[in-house]
Amino acid sequence: MLKSKYKAFEIQDALVSETVVEGNRIAIADFIKNCKEGSIITIHTLDGEPFLIGMSKLFLYCEDNEFLNNQLIPYLRGM
Questions:
Q1: pTM summary value
Q2: How many other C-beta atoms can be found within 10 angstroms of the C-beta atom of residue 52?
Q3: What local confidence, expressed as pLDDT, does residue 79 receive?
Q4: Residue 75 carries which DSSP code?
Q5: Please, what's the largest Cα pairwise distance for the chain?
Q6: Is 24 helix (H, G, I), strand (E, B) or coil?
Q7: In the sheet where 5-12 sits, what is the strand order?
């Protein structure tokens, strides 16, 4: 189940950018889509618990695999 908001980080080389994203497929996908190729992407709950960790479009961990496999990945492929 998605939370209402997440902290999202893009890490590239020594640069880290942080933003808050809404807890829905479109907002999370837009954040990922706008990250630079080769960036490390981490999305956490506002309490700091990891939700999604990946690199560009390769996802290494997701707290909600049903969301990842059935909603997020198909949506990103269709963008």
A1: 0.89
A2: 22
A3: 75
A4: H
A5: 33
A6: coil
A7: 15-22, 5-12, 40-45, 50-55, 58-62
**Tens-place pLDDT, residues 8-64:** 999 999 999 999 999 999 999 999 999 999 999 999 999 999 999 999 779 999 999
Sequence ranges of the domains in the chain: 5-78
Task: Rounding to the nearest 10 degrees, give the CA dihedral for residues 22, 23, 28, 29.
Answer: -110
Helix (H) or strand (E) holding 74: helix 73-78
* Strand-pair partners of 10: 17, 41
Nearest residue to 51 (alpha-carbon basis) of 75, 27, 28, 17: 28
For 75, other C-beta atoms within 10 Å of its C-beta total 16
